Amino acid sequence: MSGKHFNVHEVGCCIKYFIFGFNIIFWLLGVAFLSVALWAWSEKGVLSNISSITDLGGFDPVWLFLVVGGVMFVLGFAGCIGALRENSFLLKFFSVFLGIIFFLELTAGVLAFVFKDWIKDQLKFFINNNIRAYRDDIDLQNLIDFTQDYWECCGAFGPEDWNLNIYFNCTDTNLSREKCGVPFSCCTKDPAEDVINTQCGYDIRAKGDNEQKMFIHTKGCVPQFEKWLQENLTVVAGIFIGIALLQIFGICLAQNLLSDIEAVRESCLFN
């Protein structure tokens, strides 16, 4: 009995509780993300009408919170319980799941570098598809407005992309007051204005190109994003490398703890 008791303590306590502490933070963040997502859907009435999930033509930002939160929740749970209970299955699941995520990130990075033009086309398609659904979902609307405001852009490749939206197009059948306009997030900011003029984009596309440049951003979000990426390449690369190293570190710690657990079990069998 004393031999077995001694062998139990061969499992590295520092590694064990470090993994536990790290993953409980991860798990709590996952819970927070999921809570925000469910709250957002509750506010929009999605939870009371699940079929409305498929009604949105564009991208619902809530899905991002759900996916990220779900992954963090599962990983955090497996890491926490696996480390605390010295559960080999959960620790292996944690390592493999983290490894798969790392591999997918690496693959996505390589493919994005190799197929730049295809990525650009997909990004254009994604933005234009969401432009069509701009008024369909408040979260999507806020996301587009934030993007256009942050990168000082308008549409995927220019203001004319807003012709895809039924409220902003210039067709004769469009009776909307926003006809031939753009959202306020396309407008150039006036430092003297304390209150945002949400009507600044009305009828702007009915004017000439030179006049448009005086009031709105005429560059598209795709080229502006490319420009931002080039200017901040070091920071972006540093973030991705940091995340990758963190994942590798987590896998190594889990494998180290697994080795300790297996070693203790083997020694118990021989005693």
TrEMBL record:
Record bears the keyword Glycoprotein: yes
Its membrane topology: Multi-pass membrane protein
Signal peptide boundaries: none
Disulfide bonds: C153-C186, C154-C170
Keywords carried by this UniProt record: Cell membrane, Disulfide bond, Glycoprotein, Membrane, Transmembrane, Transmembrane helix
Family affiliation: Belongs to the tetraspanin (TM4SF) family.
Designated name of the protein: Tetraspanin
Organism: Phoxinus phoxinus
